[in-house]
Fold each of these.
Amino acid sequence: MAHKTKKMVIISGYFSGESYGLLGPQMAATIINDHTDYHAIVVGVTNEDHPQALKAALSRHFKDQRKVVGFSSLGGRPDLFELARELKATGAVTILAGPQAGPDYRGEVGWQTHPHRFRGLSDHFSFALHGPAQQIVPVLAAGFDRISAFDGILFRDNDDRIIENPPIPWEDQYLSTVDWGTLYRLKGTVFEPVTITTAQVLQQIGCPHAARCRTVSIDYPCGLVKADSQPLAIVIDQKGCSFCDVAADKGYMGSVDESAVQAQLAGLPAGSDGRKISFELINENPLFRLAGLIEMADELSITLSQINLTLRADYLLKGLRRLEGVLESARKKDIRILLSSIGFESFDDTILKNLNKGVTRQVNLDAVRAIRELKPKFPAHFGYLKEEGANHGFIHPTPWDHPEIACEINKTISMYRLSQDILPHHSTPLIIHHASGLGEWIRQIELRENIEFERIGTTIGWWQTADRSLL
């Protein structure tokens, strides 16, 4: 790569002590480096990184240049929103991109007439970019004085109105290449490169469960249900799981072309043994294409080491026979298949219904039984245990955890020994992003009951309310 004087930094949330790649931000950095006059790096920022040290590192990196800083996959972190606001105030160009960039820039539905709602991040960022990363290429080429002309851009016009230009479609040619050497971490007040040990391969965009809109009925939070009243519910139209902001953002956009997947496989870094490093296959329904992926690697003389899968319990059961066939092949080739995350989320039918998971408690338990039976057959080449690096979905607490449900869940956990191998060390509290289906559920409850739920950044604190009639 020829030396470039223009610089860009893409900041993303990261977990301390890890060394995984960041597919979306690093793919964006690769596109910028290959198609513009800018050299982009990705900086993973943990909760432990000190804001002043980060700002000092940015100043050291850009020197006397105007800072151009993208923000992607922030996980709703207020500290990174505040950093963007401070950088913008000092003259930097700050760009919000990645999942939910559009809704987070615009703000929560109805915030103009309901001041307690999330008002959006348009004051924090120069503009937002929603949709494919290659839309930034003409913007960087033209400068930042006339961004109104470009696809996928959200910005404030001279009358302080938010204008949103529609994004372009996804193009496989830009999904082929990822430079995995673009990831850095903060050390002191400088950015140091990270050698990643786990990458990602994009085979599918979005989730098939989010392909079709359904009308769903979601129960009231148990704290708002009076003992002598009839059960209350809110009806919403929903694609995918009701808590999933990615389903609301992307829906289901289908498969990536095989040639792009081949290029991604070929571009994976190699470990010390010469094999490609472990990678997560980005495909919510991977078992029907997994054998083809391994055959593809063979045809390209690519030696794989480990494939991590994220999938739903029902998709696991539907593809179980195929998984067993893949494991037979994986054993011969010495490839490990890790079910790194199965989205169980709950073992109660009421909660699963309210999450619009599209599965039942029994489906989840059948999936547990199936993988337990597979493990002894392929002990070295099949993994699903938390001790093997898996972190299965288990959402707790939720707004529907009344004593009867809690008692039944605890009985199920004990009866099926789920804590032994399935449940993570720590559950994940239900997170309600303002643009998810549960965000609309919350807003309808607020209006109906004359209450307000606290907003915490881009999320809604369903556990805490204020009665407006008492304010």
Note: The mean pLDDT is 94.
Amino acid sequence: MTLSKPNNIIDFFGYNNIMKQIISTIIAISLLLIMGFYSLKAYNSAKSYETISQIIVDRHNVKKLGTDKLKKIGDILSLGLYDGYKKTISEERELLTTQKFYKNRAIGYTIYSIGASALLLLLYFVMDIRLFTISITLSALMSLFGGLLMPIMMMSIHKEVEYLGDVVLSMESKGVWGSIVKLFDIHDYVVGGALLLFSIVIPLSKNISILFVATFVKNKKLHPIIHFFKLLGKWSMADVFVVATFLVYLSGSRGDMSRAEIEVGFYFFLAYVILSMVASLSADKMLRSVD
């Protein structure tokens, strides 16, 4: 009995540790699925918001506003018998309500998605370092794709025209991937190539290398890969890109002629920057633990 007691205690704690890792892994997978689900929802809502915003902008050009003014005059002269202007106002309010609905949904889904990734960070205290590294890297990749595909900023140019009011001259929704495609379309290969390299190629390579090394962490021949991309990742400019976007937003918001609005892709890209940093630190700790 005296000899078997230590073994039983070891087995007990070993069993508890295995169960803890199983439960934490299930929680991590669940959080990743939740993050993916709400990221997709945020993308769909953001695109719907973008579509409705474009419709509203199209209704604020010179021709449409001039037609609306004529309808208003007709409404007044007919003493209410003609209600064309009232219908226009009703349609405008309905569009604004729909626009606000999709905007709130996009923001809400973004909060849920980023909230799931924040909960995933807490698993660091209970999860095996290798499994945590894999989980947080997958989370970073999800955020990266969200930041690349979703619109980051919506910019519009306005002009106050006498008798017509606020005329929208143009509107453009900007995203990383869309900006890269546009730069290549206008043959601006230097800027487009730099944005492609620093915002897509290097971040993807860095995180995929972390996943690869975390999967085969016992093979020390692969460790230089992670160290190389960790060094290279410092120059990925992801954080610089986010700050630059924010500065553009501030400078655009100060002008009366142009307006800029940050969209949900910005927050996904910002989440990627944080998660990627955590993934690099976690991978570094993982490698030191096996050295």
Note: The beta strands are 153-161, 165-174, 258-262.
Amino acid sequence: MNALPDPHRTTIAAIATPPGMGAVSLLRISGPNAIAVADAATGGQASPLSPRTSHYCRIKDTNGQILDDGLLTVFRGNSSYTGEDSIEFTGHGGVLVTREVLGRFLECGAIAAGPGEFTQRAFLNGKLDLTQAEGVMDLISAQTRLSLRAARSQLEGTLGRRTTEARDQLLETLAHLEAWIDFPEEDIDPQTGVLLRGRVRSVLDVVDSLLATADQGRVLREGVRTVIFGEPNVGKSSLLNRLLGFERAIVSDIAGTTRDTIEEVVNLHGIPLRLVDTAGVRVASDRIEAEGIQRTVRQIEAADLLLEIADASQPRPTDAILPASDIKRLQVLNKTDLGEHPSWAGVEAVRLSCTSGEGFDLLSDAIRDALHFSEADWGEHAVAINARHQASLQLARTALLAALELLDDLSNDTELAAIDLREALDALGEIPGRVDTEDLLGVIFSSFCIGK
């Protein structure tokens, strides 16, 4: 990959608002020459301004013609988002005028910013740790109340503080252990060994508690893959339409109407559900329907939650549609407005009617309870690790367990335990960015918006 830009040598500029028409647009400049660039574009209006206050100004081209007018704000040094001199210009939201203003900033000495480069500079200048930087993107992309809460918690540094505190405790433990190694002639107090093992176990408890949030983090960022399946004509597409609140899938009493899978996202109790409507499972009547059913099977295998829907007015099938699996499954009985067949008596299921809408509140509650994603399940702080955090925590956990095994018997070589603790220390340090992470930064910030 290309070398990271030196934040003390380049001045960057970018449009920070989404492309398209709007009432206003926001452009950013950051770097050692940010104020000089703004002065060149405004005829010297930037440098006299008081920091962190907005003032009216005009952006002019090389001939003195006005390109746009709006509000200019100066942020100096460490008081800015990036930790370096920065300018924000809020102008009119047209596509062309915004591009013209950006072009003028580039003519005056700035260079075009890359994706996430402003937040990357905030990290490099110590304004954010790496988890907070990732929280910025999570906050932007949050689709539900719970995902917004988790992103805000991460942006406020909750995850970074927890991992840093665990790392600091482990560092102290490692220092104590290495003092043991450096002075082997001293008698080892058995109580000291007990204390060291206790500290390592305490760090391991923190690691385990964070790893337990991995599924929540994945769900909040990617959604719960929820597959609606069942026999033909039981109301799968009607259920999808009801949950979405609009007619997304074709509803017909002709068996085999749905030939392919349909996927949409809905917000349910703060949980993003990726609803997948599938073809009815039966003996296929033609090759196209057979392919649709095969796709249904593949969707079921990849599901987080299965909604098995059946017609309550018809006899209960004697054979299961699909074999039992470990995937969470809810039985849904549709068409209760037509009456319930006696064979369904005593069957635990959510009973509803896609025609009348009765029972959908019960279905929403049942989905929430099945996933254990009520707000009460989050506790006081919403911490939801991502895949990168999970990989680092798994490495730390493996190293901590190896160190504990060695420390349980004081006759073992304590230098080996020290090596394991150093590995755990490095793994924990990767999460907030306390170690050399240049390659990692390129991956993380490439997913950001330009201008953020």
Note: The chain has a mean pLDDT of 82.
Amino acid sequence: MPGPLNGIKVLEFTQIIAGPYGCQNLADMGAEVIKVEPPEGEPWRQFSQFMPNEAKYFQSLNRGKKSLVLRLQDESAQQVVYDLLPQIDVVVINYRPDVPARLGIDYDTLSELKPNLIYVDNTAWGRRGPWAHRPGYDIVAQSVSGLMAAEGKLDKNGSPRQITSTAIADYGTGVAIAWGVCAALYHRERTGEGQLIESTLLNTALAFQGSSAFDLPVADAAVHARMERVHQLQELGAPYAELLAAHNPQALLTVGNIYYRVYSTKDGAVTIGALSPSLFAKVRAALDTEFLGFADPEFNPLDPEWSAKATRAVDEIEERVRAGTTAEWLEIFERNGVPCGPLNFAEDMLDDPQVQANDIPVSLEHELSGPQRQVGPLLRMSKTPLIPRSASPVLGRHTDEVLRLAGYDDARIAQLRESGAVA
């Protein structure tokens, strides 16, 4: 069965993570995605290559696409884009803010040629404001948006540590790009209108912190007082560790926490998550303890006596859990109805029975690097299934095919290749 975006053609001018991931989601949904790359390939092809022009990072973000190599600084290569445009439904771009207009592929230029075009313009900070022309990457978005401070981790020098488990702003923006394209296609189906979609790493990073960024004066007197203290410390030139301590008094909630945490076991670790009174009781039953922790009506981590008693109680519980294996404790927690799971490594997860039972892994064959398994599409659809059709493309593999789509004959293609406009 064809995917939900079968028949939609996407012209992709993106690199690194956010744009490629967004367009890979569109390809999984059945869209024909034509990825435009410079002759040397996009930067993610070059990062940690295991063979020329092939990197695991690139292959994980570009499945199901076609590769068109254009030297966009060349006017004849720009003309290729214009000649292709009648066949194209969606353009996705995440170049530096000053680049699209310079290359003649900005929204104003392309929408004049194709008024019903859907154009996604992804930037780090947005097209307006004092930072409009600044470049940016996920680590900078983490820092600027507050994500890094909210993580609350310091290195040995007292400096903030980034979220290293994933490029959270990048991947989140990729999902937002695919979501926006689908909504815009639905709108165009009803009205015939194309439109400009703007996504930013900054907006995504803030959206993921909705509760923290949410300003509610009637409830936020303590928050405002805390931030006033942070600002005072900033004016005094206080180091980051002091700012973090003033900003994050909730760290005290770790005192007496037996309910929402990770426990070490004899052979690994087990994680539990309980956030309601009924689940708190189930955790205590599983741990065979009467200690209430932060469910105690007299909870006061600032009271040295209470804090000392809580610390001793938690130490005893932790020692008891460490004496058993992960499997043993999972059985105990599950028997008592406690949400729980083992601490796994991503590299093992494609073989996990739960992952396999839900058909999350996909197996593909790359023409150069051979067989591979990946995490498949984000969702399942019963009538229009999402099916990855191919591994990531070899650099320039589809250049001739796409040029013929634009109406170019063999002689014209040879001329463009000789001039260096295409490869």
Note: The chain has a mean pLDDT of 94.
